[in-house]
């Protein structure tokens, strides 16, 4: 069938299917390709000693500055909510001494890395997308390529490194604040003894759980940075395109870390079942 003989309805359907159904698949492919190229470029820069350390440190400090206070404010409700919800069930079972273990598992394995990822996705990745998007629409990225400067090496790799380093630090901070908030509430309102709380916490929580949280957070940081960079480098259409890229970054990064968290948790649970330390 020639293009001239096709009906307008069929053309509209084909265009809509290509944009709405195949478009996200193509975008996912480009994002995955950018992540592979960025990882290879990072390894190559590390071997050559050409890592943009200053750019990474500046970006890491910015990410810390915009996420530290929200992380503190988010960690306290996490610890309180977990203690209240789990504490009510444990009290009915007469196992108040296990509240420390339950709070520790919830905060360390799930709440801390997810909170760190969500904070970086909301504050950090949106800033990355806005910065690179503004440079793209001002044709600064094209000018860099014309001058022989690789935008991935100069802009993407430092941001990926910064997010991968800051995310575990945020997770550790959230763990400390969340566990202390849970401990305070358990002792003052749930009637749990301080010694029994920390004994159950130490019996069930392990260094492996903390390592899992840090690995999760680091993976989330890489995913968030790559998505922010990809959306920023592909921004078009002026300020409206930059704003759309920022919005898409927040939504896609949040969905991505939730899905990846589910997969990692499932794999970890299969190979490392719950054990008493």
TrEMBL record:
Record protein name field: ABC transporter permease
Q: Which organism is it from?
A: Gordonia tangerina
Task: Establish whether keyword GTP-binding is in the entry.
Answer: no
Segment forming the signal sequence = none
Where do the TM regions start and end?
Answer: 59-82, 114-134, 155-187, 210-229, 250-271
* Highest taxon in the source lineage: Bacteria
Q: Keywords for this entry?
A: Membrane, Transmembrane, Transmembrane helix
Q: A Pfam family matched by this chain, by name?
A: MlaE
